[in-house]
Amino acid sequence: MSVPAHIASVRAITSGTAKGTEGPSDVIHLPNPRPLSGHDSVVPALAESLVRKTPQLVEELIELASGRNIEHIQQLPACDIRRSLREHVLGFLRFLAQKPFPGDDPLAVPMAWGHHRAQEGVALESMLRVHRLATQLLWEKLFDEARARSPEVLQRLLDESAPVWDVLDSYSLALAEGYRSAELTARREDAARRDALFDALVEGRGVEPAVAAEARVTLGLPTRGRFAVVAVDADAGGSSRTLCAALPARSVQTVWRLRSDREIGVVELGRTPLPRLVEWLSTVPGQRMGVSGEVDSLADIATAYHFAETALQTLRYGTTGVAAFDDRLLEAFVVTSPNVAQRLAQRALGRLLDCEPEERDVLLATLEAWFRCGCSAARAAQRLHCHRNTVLNRLRRVESLTGNSLDDDRHQLACQMALVAVHTLPLTSPPQTATENV
What we know:
Layout: H1 3-15, H2 43-51, H3 54-67, H4 71-75, H5 78-96, H6 108-120, H7 124-149, H8 151-159, H9 161-202, H10 209-219, E1 224-233, H11 240-246, E2 253-259, E3 262-268, H12 274-282, E4 288-291, E5 295-297, H13 301-313, E6 321-324, H14 329-336, H15 338-349, H16 357-372, H17 377-384, H18 388-402, H19 409-424, H20 434-437
Parallel strand pairs: 4-6
Antiparallel strand pairs: 1-3, 1-4, 1-5, 2-3
Helix pairs in contact: 1-6, 2-5, 2-7, 3-5, 3-7, 5-9, 6-9, 7-8, 7-9, 9-10, 13-14, 14-15, 14-19, 15-19, 16-17, 16-18, 17-18
Protein name: Helix-turn-helix domain-containing protein
InterPro entries: CdaR-like_regulators, CdaR_GGDEF, PucR_C-HTH_dom, PucR_C-HTH_sf, RsbRD_N_dom
Family: Belongs to the CdaR family.
């Protein structure tokens, strides 16, 4: 991009009209240099006399900078350095001479060059060192020019020095602000590139060699490794910053992205066992999150994302915790086919679901305890702190309400899956499937 184009783009930034600016916080405001006092000021005439000596001043400035081993003076093309210094010096002198370029903001040139140098990778300190040398040289030249005229002119220059230094300071500030505007733009573009690459991975494009190669460079993720995906309910207060604090940086590598109401994290596990990751995440209170099973390549990140999202949906609304996909496969079956799961529960449990809540909950708890105790009424009674006959009576009540015998293996399996559905889904209006939410 040419320097005039840079000036135009920086003007857009300073006015807040640049494409992609996000609001008033991005607009750069610079103080206007203090105007020269009075029409009889000696500064304009002194500055105008130096305008004719601009080429000589530029060469002296280059020699001064080269003698101090300023990095970018030695590395950038000489013609580029001369052009930028000439525009700086000329713009400064024209402003003092009260003859700026028609329609030009006197600070547009230093701001544009600050923006340009930042894009070239020049260090800000290197630029400011050259500016300090320019400040020193121009003041000395104004001083010499005044002294050559008369002691009176020299004294008046000293009396009027404040506006001169104001302009020099404003040039320095404009350089820095132009530089920082370029850094801000670069950070924004880098964040957008990272987000787009992250989205490509969770949308299944990790199978493309170009995407995988860019993920290695931009996100720092190896093409193959041990990966897991974490899906966090942002509406429940989930925050990647909070979660990162719970994960030892030396043990795992994480890349996070906020998508809609989810904080999504891709975790490169290294040598960390997946259960240890779940354990670390579980130490963060008040979170709702799902953790996928382990996959071994970027090509499988989309699958892991689906698993993490499914695991998160196995947590009933209003509850918190960490749901690991591999530990909740039955619940995963339920949330991925909620209509089927609800139909199964209604068919298997029948009129039991229509009982008063107190009786319904007691019967469901008894049935679940009986299954967990290997269909032993005695062991279930111990678990429930009641008599064995109480358990048997409740089970007969279950059979009468469901219309099926608990001796039927297929009915037992249906009841077990129905219990999973009851604990996972509301048994009223069915929610969307996990596939629809992903």
